[in-house]
Amino acid sequence: MFQSDSDSEVVGCLIARHYSHGMGGAIERAVDELAGAYSFVVLYENSVYAARDRWGFRPLVLGSGEAGYGVASESCALDVLSLTDRRDVRAGEIVEITRSGVRTVRRGEDKPAGVCAFEYIYFARPDSVIDGASVDSAREALGAQLARECPIEADVVVAVPDSGISAAQGYSAESGIPYQRGLVRNRYLGRTFIRPAQGQRELGVRLKLNAVERSCAGKRVVLVDDSIVRGTTAARLVDLMRRAGAREVHMAIASPPVTHSCRYGISTAGSDELVAASKSHDEILKMIGADSLHHISVEGMEQAILSKVAANGYGPSVCTGCFTGTFMDQAPAQAEGAVDGTADSCEAVNTRDTCGACCAAGAGTAPLTYRDSGVDIDEGNRAVELMKASVRSTFTAGVLTDIGGFGGLFRPDLAGMKDPVLVSGTDGVGTKLKVAFATGKHNTIGIDAVAMCVNDVLVSGARPLFFLDYIGCGRLEAEQIAAIVDGVAEGCRRAGCALIGGETAEMPGFYADGEYDIAGFAVGVADRSSIIDGSRIAPGDVVVGLRSSGLHSNGYSLARKALLDVAGYDLDDVPPGLGCSVGQAMLEPTRIYARPILSLMRELDVLGMAHITGGGLVENPPRVLPEGTAMELDLGSWQRPAIFDLVQSSANVTTAEMLRVFNMGIGFMVIVKPDQALKAVEILSHAGEEAGIIGRIIEGNRQVVFRGCRQ
């Protein structure tokens, strides 16, 4: 399956697997499935997504400035670009960066559960800041704590450059022993710790470091390094000091002994390579050839690091797994004072003070709960968790709030508008829901809810901004509600608007179990001077029709009566000429025309539009016609979907009734000047719509006249 051994490929495959939820939703779901330490960035179209693991093992910082926005694993990288307004990406947080700014796809935790201690000890550059703490100051604190725990009689403190310098300076300041440069680093070589082969590491040490004899000769040296992993580098360093004339060499290490392989490391040593995992302190001392060997304690290391982090108002824990064998994700998360949900006594939930009062009222009977009454709060919370990724996948740059607030906040982009006007619409899905109940398919009904509202708003020339939904049910089933909202989110993605809020109301006794109702509310924006109201329509103008996907969401009482009651079809039946089951045809989602219509409006002068909903081709077009005009439609100019023929023939429905109830294959209409009609068809076809000229505007009294026979 995989083409490489790169973890980046794994992340990419997970994102691809969930791409149907949109890029933001796909990344969110991938993050939910990924375990371990990571921070990654995805470049997608005009957006940059950045994510940090849920534990906050690996750092990730977000910055902004005159040059724009940037994310990096270390803050020093942002300094180069003068992105000085910085903050750490929270543990588990996902952000999206666009030209409009930064949007939080998922908020994450306020503080990491376990920042990797080695980020402060070795990995990060000293000029970086991680989770509020300067790496340089943390290393100095490690050196100072090491001096307190391991005092040594010596003449000079020498650092192993570069990661040992700050710790050595801290040791020197705390102990009072002078700090001198005793080792010089070759700047043309990289780090030896992460080189894959031992031979490469040993050669790297010989080439990378050389001793300064003046600082070491005849002196007792405290040689401060960040860590000892395999021990070979330490032995080479001690040998360098001896050759430079050091009288004594005492190794002081600013980390505890590394005894466990990091389960989240890249090119890090396995347990069989770790010298502290297989040798005692005295054996390691003999191996490296030093006069003494000292390590900071685990507790001292944590204290030193966290003292700097806490001083900056942050408060993460530190992962010490490579020193203790206990990694942060292995520790069970237990809330202090947690209540056992199965407890049946007042004492168990710490209500002793009111125990007598609350129990006396219902003495002899079991206490009544909201769940007993038919409302399950926990199931509702589970539904919210299941739908979060889908909802967040719709968030656009204007969304300012995450899921869970009392109100959805949205900042519209009004660039280029002189007099912006909000356009709103609300609608439901009607008895199409009965088909969803009967088939058990709930993930497309939400698309219909969005389409009915967004297409109405579109008629005025408004660009959809955001959507809200309302779902009422008798008994809340988390998976069912999540499936409905998945459909709502898909509809919003198709329309290019954000799902910024919703309500799920569990009303036992009001709806039958398994049944529900859904309503939607859409808001769009248009410049007042560009609002399309049909007032400029005149005889001679041309009507362009956009094909519907089927019944859409209107006329289902008649359609169900004709097909299921009169004709006696089951929803699983596949009548001749339909090409699918009755249930599939009836659940085909309403087509959303937002993107192609907005593209058309950018290119041509649109005079009027109509969304063909309840009332069909008879009642809807006149809503946009000015006085003195009428619409003439050629019924033979388009091919109507087979479902309409089946409804009509199944119950002998008259053509006049069909035209007054259904869209008959035309879901949306656009009226343009004659010289722009063919161009309009071309633009809409290029946008993926089946469009064609279906009629014209004539003189009349705001009615629709039909001519011709259907194909």
Describe the structure.
The protein is an alpha+beta fold. It has four domains: 7-113, Glutamine Phosphoribosylpyrophosphate, subunit 1, domain 1, CATH 3.60.20.10; 120-307, Rossmann fold (3-Layer(aba) Sandwich), CATH 3.40.50.2020; 377-530, PurM-like, N-terminal domain (60s Ribosomal Protein L30, Chain: A); 542-707, PurM-like C-terminal domain (Phosphoribosyl-aminoimidazole Synthetase, Chain A, domain 2). The chain is built from 25 helices and 27 strands. The strands form eight sheets. The protein has a six-stranded mixed sheet with strand order 23-25-22-26-24-27. 46% of the residues are buried. Mean pLDDT is 88; it is low at 191-196 and 331-363.
- How many separate structural domains? 4
How confident is the prediction overall: mean pLDDT?
A: 88
The biggest beta sheet is recorded as: 6 strands, mixed
Instruction: Determine the N-to-C terminus distance.
Output: 49 Å
% residues in beta strands: 15-25%
Number of strands: 27
Based on secondary structure, the structural category is alpha+beta
CATH fold field value of the largest domain:
Rossmann fold
Please mark out the parts with pLDDT under 50 across 5 or more consecutive residues, or reply none: 191-196, 331-363
CATH class of the largest domain: Alpha Beta
The CATH architecture of the largest domain can be given as 3-Layer(aba) Sandwich
Q: How much helicity do the residues have?
A: 25-40%
> Major sheet: order of its strands?
23-25-22-26-24-27
Rg, Cα atoms, Å = 35 Å
Overall form: elongated
